[in-house]
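Same chain as my last thread, 233 residues:
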Amino acid sequence: MTPLTDTFSAAAPSPWKAEMWLRFRSLFWLKLVGTTAFTWIFFIGYFHLLRHPVNPVTEMPLTALDHLIPFGPHWLGAYLSLWLYVGVAPGLQRNFAELLVYGLWMGALSLSGLTLFYLWPTAVPPLSFDVSGYPGFAMLQGVDAAGNACPSMHVAAAMFTAVRLDDVLRRVRTPVVFRLANALWFLAIVYSTLAVKQHVALDALAGALLGLAFVLPSLHWRPTPYRVEALTA
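reply #2:
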């Protein structure tokens, strides 16, 4: 190899970096606008059912785990980070077909959650203390009241995202630290739903199961996955 070739090879990005950059750039504006629109449409249905339940609202019972986890106002950031997190996995779909099918699976998950809220409205027990004095909690209580509790769509969406994002990171062969960071982000979101007292443990469990019920088949019924090995062929 010539010195010029050696210099180019040293400067060239590794295959996984090139693939991740390609995925990030592909259909960027469609992904951004589509994810935003999808979230707003979901919230229209969510808030309508929250404010106009058609059946009596069931109060979810507390478990030993709920009593064990203390109120943690500092977990609010992790709780709110879901709305950034859910955009990462669709943002890394490689082409329109992958993005469309991903959206259909997530749409089916969201519709199932809303259907459950329609048939069985739930709420967490009222808190025995006032949280409105903590930064951000007055807004949270006003916007995301503690209804439509079970299953936790916060956890369901995080579970769907975590599995699909891990699948991308695994197939692209990123360093393991990225997969660990994904797992930790997911766990932080799940824990935060309990720490900020927006959900109880049974809500989180039901949300995790709902997320798995949709994300696992989504790994099989989708366009043929693209493998990063093609970049090194």
